[in-house]
Amino acid sequence: MRIKYIILMFAALLAFSSCGEKKKKSYDEIAMSGLTTRTENLKTNIKAYANKGTLIGQMYGTLTGIGWNRWQWDSDRCDLKTLCGYRPAANGYELAGIENGKSQNIDGVPFKAIREDVLKHFRKGGLLIMNWTMPDYNGNDDMLEEYTKQVAKYLDTLQDGYGIKAPVVLNLLPIDGKTWYCKLSKDDYISLYKKIQDLLDDEDVTNVVYSYSETYQPGKNLMDRYPDNKIDVINVTYLQSKNAIDLPLYQKSIKEIVKQALPFAQDHNNAFGLTTGVESIGDSSIFSETLLTVLKQHHIAYLMFGRNQGEPIEEHYYTPYPGVSNKKTHGFMEMINDKVCVFLEKLNGLYLEH
To answer: Which range is the signal sequence, renumbered to this chain (predicted)?
Structure first.
């Protein structure tokens, strides 16, 4: 009788444990595609939201700024918030370095700080965009698999205490004209892109929306290496450095980017985003006359500015910061006060089914 009682108690404990596991898993529902439902919703909403306005964002927008960074000062600062009262609707990050087990990425930002910032931004409903500028694996497939495993492991840590993962738009192998994979042939690049997608699938990555990202080079055509495989977002990057500011060229290039990339994105049912800016700004008319005009004329999912970092004297900023001259602020304020610009405070339901 005692043995029978023990067996029944053990069975009850197993059943209770099993029920507990099921309840925990149900917090982050998986769609038929194998992605989380929030990730699937993001794939749909990032395209639909472009009809309502453009999400304004910045690389490391709530992690670094002029004269501060989050991991050393542990503050809640944000250059955009301090300047104009709004937080970026989209934040951008770089993953390069995680594949080698480093504690900081190639931009010197700790991965721990990135994870904390990602989850904080996700809880507030913001868009998360990550680049993976993968180092050369020298044709070693075992190394490629290990690199991919490390990225997958990190992406899996981007979840809250309830196991709900933050969906991420992943700019996989972004083409900048400098990295080793830019020297690959078109077919070899596309093959590598798809291979990494398969490897991430094998690692059960469920919170990624794939993006094709390319840096615009004046005079050259875009979209030549588009993989056309599970892509939902197209990003084009065009940044001018402070030592090579050419505002007429900037205006011309932005128009050419939109002319080439936006119809291509629409034909492939992709959202189109633009990462851009002029380092140290030069003239704030780039915001009010160049960028705002484009945003009002076209359906652009997001506008991501380059990173603000360092001390004021270094002039490494792409958006105005508190204390910068009015000459560099006026056009920016005109742009962000237009209803086409969407900041975090106005962003609702990016991860919900509508």
So the answer is: 1-20
